[in-house]
Amino acid sequence: MNIANSLVVAAALAILPLPIFAKELTGSALVEALSGRSFSCDAEGKPMTITFGKAKKNGSVNYRGKLNGRSFSSSYKMDKSGRYRNGGRLREVHRTGKGKVTILSKDLPTAVCTVK
């Protein structure tokens, strides 16, 4: 691979929304990553904090937080595939580093979060 090709690959990797090796969490790994934890996040340039309660036996978890100064609260319900949904809409959670997760959905800003 020559230098020009290397630069093109590096530029392409730099614009990806998640690290290539980010793993979507499901099932017990997903519950473990969020249950009882608080995060500081960047939601596409907007400050966000989110605190998850302790997960219930069925995997569902309540949460509360603030996005750009506005409070919100709701819950994630675990579906049969071990993924979280909120109001029927999928919420993908990816581990993107030690103490870091990224929460993706089609209807909300992508949140890049670090555990507090």
Could you walk me through the main structural features you see in this protein, from its secondary elements to its overall organization?
- This protein has 116 residues and is of the alpha+beta class.
- Helix content is 17%, strand content 46%.
- The chain is built from two helices and nine strands, in the order αβαββββββββ.
- The protein has helices spanning 3-14, 27-34, and strands spanning 23-24, 38-43, 46-52, 61-67, 70-78, 84-86, 89-97, 100-104, 111-115.
- Strands 2-3-4-5-6-7-8-9 form an eight-stranded antiparallel barrel.
- Strand 8 and strand 9 form a beta hairpin.
- The longest helix is centred in the first third of the chain and has 12 residues, at 3-14.
- It starts with a helix and ends with a strand.
Multimeric state = single chain
Mean pLDDT across all residues, rounded? 86
Give the number of helices: 2
Widest sheet: strand order? 2-3-4-5-6-7-8-9
| Strand coverage percent | over 45%
* Residue windows where pLDDT falls under 50 for at least 5 positions: 4-20
What string, H for helix and E for strand, traces the elements in order?
HEHEEEEEEEE
Cα Rg: 16 Å
Cα shape: globular
The description of the largest β-sheet is: 8 strands, antiparallel, barrel
